[in-house]
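Async update (no meeting this week)

Hi team, since we skipped the sync, here's where things stand on the single-chain job. The sequence we agreed to prioritize is pasted below, unchanged from the tracker. I ran it this morning and attached the output directly underneath so nobody has to dig for it. Comments welcome in thread, and please keep replies under the output.
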Amino acid sequence: MSSPSPLLPPQPANANNTNKAHLDPLPPSVFTLPQTAQLEALYTIIRDSKTSRGDFLFYSDRIIRLLVEEGLNHLPVVAKTVETPTFPPDIASRYVLLLDPMLATGGSAAKAVEVLKDHGVPEERIIFINLISAPEGLKFFTGKFPSLKVITGWIDEGLNDKAYIIPGLGDFGERRYCV
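Output:
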């Protein structure tokens, strides 16, 4: 059985690149980030001499992350079949941070805690972290799991007749992942 060969790294983009104004054509070994309005805005901010140090660090770090991600795209990859683990074998002895952006009724979070407990994680070693909670969900969830800590960013007014958090922020998954 032969070992799989590495996949080729990405090839240079064919899209027009405004960076070419100073060097056209670009050498074949030079790659640039996609020239988007967002990238242009980031560079505008960090080029401005009036930008505060904090903003300079924040926005230059964003550009650096984009550059590193693009650099990683140029590493060779070897195709491999993997078996995805569920939980580490020693999960029962670990602390677990359980993250869910919204706690409405508490049903989904409760199910997740039950799965962790079924795998031996003690309730007092689970910390639930979320952006927004409804009071109804908090009452249910903490009543069911009194030893579990909950860290929430905000407690909204409550739930509407469809069990949506009011005022909430809409469907987090749709907004976050554009689905």
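Quick observations from my side:
The radius of gyration is 24 Å.
Confidence is low (pLDDT under 50) at residues 9-17.
Reply here if anything looks off.
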